[in-house]
Write a structure and sequence with these properties.
The protein has one helix and nine strands, in the order βββββββββα. The longest helix is centred in the C-terminal third of the chain and has 13 residues. The chain is mainly β and 116 residues long. The protein is elongated. Strands 4, 5, 7, 8 and 9 form a five-stranded antiparallel sheet that branches. The protein has one domain: Cystine Knot Cytokines, subunit B. 11% of the residues lie in helices and 59% in strands. Keywords: Disulfide bond, Secreted. InterPro entries: Cys_knot_C, Cystine-knot_cytokine, Glyco_hormone_CN, Mucin_vWF_Thrombospondin_sf. Its main location: secreted. Pfam families: Cys_knot.
């Protein structure tokens, strides 16, 4: 079932996505596969004209982490040495409010960053 966002179907809500991979760091590899997590999916974002306010009203949310845990994995190097590597594991994702900017505002911000 899809949710509706201003008449547009949201086919994949914001959620944790998991995959198993080996981690590599400075030529060393994790002894076992590690569950790597990401936040992905859709959140409600809209812009609409408000007759009462006589201006555009915007609401922007983005899919991002809400709860994380620091985990460790044993790394093994080609010379046989071992060390522990810490990484961040995402436990929960959710839609969080963020600033809404227009494409023009984004372009101005990028131009300012280049000048610095």
């Amino acid at each position: 079932m899809s949710l509706l966002c201003a008449g547009i179907p949201i086919t994949k809500p914001c959620n944790v996505t998991k995959s198993k991979v080996y981690l590599d760091s400075n030529g060393c590899k994790s002894a076992n596969t590690v569950e790597v997590t990401t936040c992905s999916g859709s959140c409600v974002t809209y812009a609409m004209y408000s007759l009462e306010a006589n201006m555009m009203e915007r609401s922007c949310t983005c899919c991002r982490e809400e709860s994380t845990t620091k985990k460790e994995v044993e790394m093994i190097c080609p010379d046989g040495s071992k060390f522990n590597h810490s990484y961040i594991h995402i436990n929960k994702c959710g839609c969080q409010r963020t600033e809404c900017v227009t494409p023009e505002e984004t372009q101005v911000t990028r131009s300012r960053r280049r000048r610095r």
